[in-house]
């Protein structure tokens, strides 16, 4: 095998001794200055909910429980415990202020920039070309998504470990030249850091192959003709522990994503379409690197790429591959950079399709390093050949300035959820997932008409989008537009049958049946709940709602059976306990009803309705002491509840405690002056105390409110006759 040779070009003046220090300062300052607006960005309703804002384990901070949870749980269908631990630390130190986690992302990005610069400089000795690669990495707008999105902490964090792993590997290789025990420690450090990176984001699975590329260039270990060359078998053997770690994480990640329903099978997306999209995406990423316009957080496509576009992309990729292979001896950096780009994109290029996106800016965070190397080293060679270093330096400065300007503009789109989703729609028309996410945002903000418009737009772009049908159906159901709601719920079920689809349709049918007293819809609702329960027999919610449907039809026996099943499946599910208690009370099984009301109040002492139900049961069982205590709890929780004050008065009066009962009656009447029943009860209590004049006044007030109140007429007559005697 011939030696690798590189064509000599006129040497540039050597950099000053302290140039790396000043370059490092300049890189860090430029990165922080350009990306500083990310610290004013908000959390997004786009994965940030899973990772931080709706994750109680993360918000609890770094505790023993949350630490254990991070290692045994998956988030967004991935296992990345190290990333989750950093989010926990954010919450522990800074709370839910979004400025801080954004700043942490930015600091990792700045650290990655400096690591990349010093790593390339150490491997190649080329200070300015290494600086150019690092500057492009730092300022390119395709990297905004990785920095400005809190949920992408995993991107900047895993790359930090990627570069540290590579640094340790390079130190290992350097120490092999002069045999020392330090080499094995650097190798072990590389393995440990690599494991941490894999547990930050699975994309690091290609790092072992990237290390092989570095063995080729710039470490030049793949050259047995030289004394320093290393047999290829030895190079492969070195990577086996790394490959085993990668393989293990690939299995874990694939199973998690498949279990979560993110991996599309060949029926949903044929292999030919995946391959076509992969080829086109490789070319599109390069296009966006050179012309970063129309960047969006999410790119979707509902149809396969035209054959001519796939063929053109394949031809382009093949031509570049052939060209760099032809130049592999004179310009090995071209082959190393190109195959770095192709190889590191493999996990996210879509051959194993996860989700509906065709590509994503964040996927380029590491792969573009290869292309930046090609640009920097190739540009330096062209500049040297043209003997115009000032022009080359000016062109490089202009390129970086343009990147910085576009990056600053791109950051504004990540300021908040609405800005992001609108940008996705503007940049990629017919982006049904962006319309859907914007619709969800508007629905949560109670901008119902805007939400309907966005869900409708999502369905116009993709009529088979089950989630959009489902959510639009929910809004229409709330608006009592039952026929339209049922139409969309049926469409969602047809497109993506499953427990939740059956459950949602059954709920809609039950609501429509109750509103219209429609026996046919009641029957269909029951049947649909049963289909849902066939798929998930352990759903206490489905059993409970089926019980409500039976109850609405007056089928108390069937309702009671479903409530009992729901409460048995999940004793902490308060709605089932409340419904069961109510059904038992209606059936006269007061002692049993009390047990379930007590279960609710024990779990949630703030449930006034449970205390009220318990009080009524106790009163009906003539347990007036217990009833009074329960009614007191209701009045504490709901001080403006006139009925609770009146009932508390009744319970106290029944215990012959008129002095305590009367203030309760007066409070009830202050809250509801038209309550003739309380006026009567107060009059009766006053009468028993011998306060006949006050009693007469309240009897008469009760009759003014309700002249037909016969019991008050009789009591007043008895009072007056007794006075006359």
Keyphrases for this structure?
single chain; 725 residues; mainly alpha; two-stranded antiparallel sheet; elongated; disordered N terminus
Describe it.
The protein is an all-alpha fold. It has a domain at 26-412. Helices cover 72% and strands 1% of the residues. It contains 35 helices and 2 strands. The protein has helices at residues 19-35, 48-53, 56-59, 64-72, 81-94, 99-124, 127-139, 144-148, 153-176, 182-198, 207-216, 232-259, 271-290, 307-326, 332-344, 368-386, 389-412, 417-427, 432-444, 448-461, 466-478, 482-495, 499-516, 519-535, 540-552, 556-569, 574-586, 590-603, 608-620, 624-637, 642-654, 658-671, 676-688, 692-705, 710-724; strands at residues 299-300, 357-359. Strands 1-2 form a two-stranded antiparallel ribbon. Helix 24 packs antiparallel against helix 25. The radius of gyration is 36 Å and the shape is elongated. The model is unreliable at 1-11 and 260-267 (pLDDT under 50).
Helix content: over 70%
Write down how many β-strands occur, each being a DSSP E stretch of 2 or more residues.
Answer: 2
The stretches of 5 or more residues where confidence is low (pLDDT under 50) are: 1-11, 260-267
Radius of gyration: 36 Å
- Strand coverage percent: under 5%
Average of pLDDT: 91
Report the sheet with the most strands, covering strand number, pairing sense and barrel closure.
2 strands, antiparallel
Ends apart, CA distance between termini = 132 Å
The global form is: elongated
Order of adjacent strands in the largest pleated sheet: 1-2
Briefly note the structural class of the backbone: mainly alpha
Instruction: Count helical runs.
Output: 35
Oligomer: single chain
């Amino acid at each position: 095998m011939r030696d690798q040779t590189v064509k000599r070009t006129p040497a540039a003046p050597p950099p000053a001794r302290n140039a790396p220090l000043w370059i490092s300062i300049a890189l860090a300052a430029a990165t922080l200055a350009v990306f500083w607006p990310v610290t004013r960005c908000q959390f997004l309703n786009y994965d940030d909910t899973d990772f931080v804002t709706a994750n109680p384990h993360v918000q609890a901070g770094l505790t023993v429980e949350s630490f254990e949870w991070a290692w045994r749980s998956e988030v967004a269908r991935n296992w990345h415990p190290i990333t989750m631990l950093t989010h926990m630390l954010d919450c522990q130190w800074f709370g839910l202020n979004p400025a801080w986690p954004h700043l942490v992302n930015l600091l990792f990005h700045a650290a990655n920039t400096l690591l990349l610069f010093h790593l390339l400089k150490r491997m190649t000795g080329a200070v300015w070309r290494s600086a150019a690669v690092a500057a492009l990495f730092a300022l390119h707008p395709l990297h905004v998504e990785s920095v400005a999105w809190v949920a992408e902490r995993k991107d900047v964090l895993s790359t930090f470990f990627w570069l540290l792993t590579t640094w340790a590997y390079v130190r290992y290789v350097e120490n092999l030249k002069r045999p020392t025990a330090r080499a094995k420690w650097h190798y072990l450090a590389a393995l440990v850091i690599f494991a941490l990176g894999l547990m930050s984001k699975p994309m690091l699975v290609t790092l072992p192959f990237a290390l092989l590329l570095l063995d080729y260039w710039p470490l030049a270990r793949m050259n047995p003709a030289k004394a320093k060359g290393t047999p290829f078998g030895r190079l492969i053997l070195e990577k086996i522990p790394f490959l085993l770690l990668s393989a293990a994480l690939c299995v874990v990640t694939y199973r998690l994503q498949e279990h979560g329903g993110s991996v599309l099978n060949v029926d949903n997306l044929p292999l030919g379409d995946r391959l076509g999209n992969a080829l086109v995406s490789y070319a599109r990423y390069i296009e966006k690197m050179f012309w970063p316009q129309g960047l969006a957080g999410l790119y979707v496509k509902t149809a396969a790429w035209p054959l001519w576009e796939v063929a053109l992309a394949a031809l382009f990729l093949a031509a570049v591959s052939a060209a760099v292979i032809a130049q592999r001896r004179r310009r090995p950096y071209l082959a190393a950079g190109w195959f770095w780009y192709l190889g590191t994109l493999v996990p996210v290029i879509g051959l194993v399709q996860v989700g509906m996106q065709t590509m994503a800016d964040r996927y380029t965070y590491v792969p573009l390093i290869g292309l930046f190397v090609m640009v920097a080293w190739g540009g330096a060679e062209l500049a040297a050949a043209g003997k115009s270093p000032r022009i080359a330096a000016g062109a490089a400065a202009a390129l970086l300035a343009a990147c910085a300007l576009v990056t600053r503009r791109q950051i504004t789109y990540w300021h908040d959820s609405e800005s992001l989703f609108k940008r996705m729609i503007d940049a990629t028309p017919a982006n049904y997932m962006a319309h859907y996410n914007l619709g969800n945002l508007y629905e949560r903000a109670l901008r119902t008409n805007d939400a309907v418009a966005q869900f409708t737009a999502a369905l116009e772009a993709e009529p088979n989008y089950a989630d959009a049908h489902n959510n639009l159906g929910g809004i229409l159901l709330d608006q009592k537009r039952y026929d339209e709601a049922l139409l969309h719920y049926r469409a969602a079920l047809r497109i993506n049958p499953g427990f939740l689809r059956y459950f949602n349709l059954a709920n809609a049918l039950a609501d429509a049946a109750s509103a219209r007293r429609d026996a046919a819809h009641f029957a269909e609702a029951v049947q649909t709940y049963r289909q849902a329960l066939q798929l998930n027999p352990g759903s206490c919610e489905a059993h409970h709602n089926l019980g409500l449907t039976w109850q609405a039809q007056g089928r108390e026996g069937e309702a009671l059976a479903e409530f009992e099943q729901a409460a048995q499946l999940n004793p902490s599910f308060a709605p089932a306990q409340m419904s069961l208690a109510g059904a038992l009370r209606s059936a006269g099984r007061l002692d049993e009803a009390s047990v379930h009301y007590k279960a609710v109040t024990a779990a949630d002492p703030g449930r006034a309705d449970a205390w009220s139900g318990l009080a009524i049961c106790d009163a009906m069982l003539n347990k007036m002491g217990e009833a009074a205590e329960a009614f007191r709890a209701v009045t504490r929780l709901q001080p403006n509840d006139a009925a609770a004050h009146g009932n508390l008065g009744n319970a106290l009066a029944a215990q012959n405690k008129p002095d305590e009962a009367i203030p309760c009656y007066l409070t009830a009447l202050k809250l509801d002056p038209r309550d003739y029943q309380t006026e009567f009860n107060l009059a009766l209590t006053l009468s028993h105390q011998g306060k006949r004049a006050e009693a007469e006044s309240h009897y008469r007030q009760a009759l003014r409110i309700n002249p037909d109140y016969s019991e008050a007429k009789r009591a007043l007559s008895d009072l007056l006759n007794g006075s006359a005697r």
